[in-house]
Design a protein that fits this description.
two-stranded parallel sheet, alpha+beta, 19% strand
Length: 176
């Protein structure tokens, strides 16, 4: 098992990996358009290509929801199109951490009406109910490649207050 500083370092490494492998991050946010301001044409093309390929793949898929498939497809889409929103970027980070042997890891996809966000949590104790936020965040680490955030998971409450309380459907995929 990794120490807390090693978990923070793993999250930082995952974000660095995403930055290196997905040039145009968060084009569904104003911040994504501010990065690399001279590459507006490339961003438009990348975003449209991502939307096209993503919708084509969605139309072809006939199965029910499968977290592993979902994460893997988002990872591939981000790398193919060189862009992604929080969902795709978190999938790239998740698979990076998985390949490095970091466990446990959770892919969170939190939908709260008009607000939604995806991120990765490392080292969450699955034995603690998600609704008991204070207890499971004691040793867990957040990895959010959209906003370049890696920190103790307790920061979720101040950074994304609309995500609380968490429920079981918020965890889309978990690896022990």
């Amino acid at each position: 098992m990794l120490s807390h500083p090693e978990l923070i370092s793993a999250a930082r490494s995952a974000i660095d990996y995403v930055r290196t492998n997905v040039r145009y991050r968060g084009l569904n946010t104003p911040g994504g358009w501010i990065r690399n301001p001279t590459e507006a044409n490339q961003k438009v093309i990348a975003r449209l290509y991502s939307l096209y390929v993503g919708s084509q793949r969605d139309a072809e898929y006939k199965g029910g929801f499968n977290g592993e498939y979902y994460v893997n497809e988002l990872d591939k889409l981000a790398k193919l199109t060189n862009t992604g929103n929080c969902s795709e970027l978190s999938a790239v980070a998740f698979n990076f951490l998985k390949d490095k042997g970091v466990r446990p890891i959770d892919y969170f996809g939190v939908f709260r009406g008009a607000w939604n966000h995806a991120f990765v949590i490392i080292n969450r104790d699955a034995g603690t109910p998600l609704s008991n936020f204070r207890d499971w965040t004691n040793s867990a680490v957040l990895c959010d490649p959209l906003y370049d955030r890696f920190a103790d998971a307790g920061f979720l409450a101040s950074w994304y207050p609309r995500c609380l309380p968490f429920t079981n459907p918020d965890v889309k995929y978990r690896l022990e």
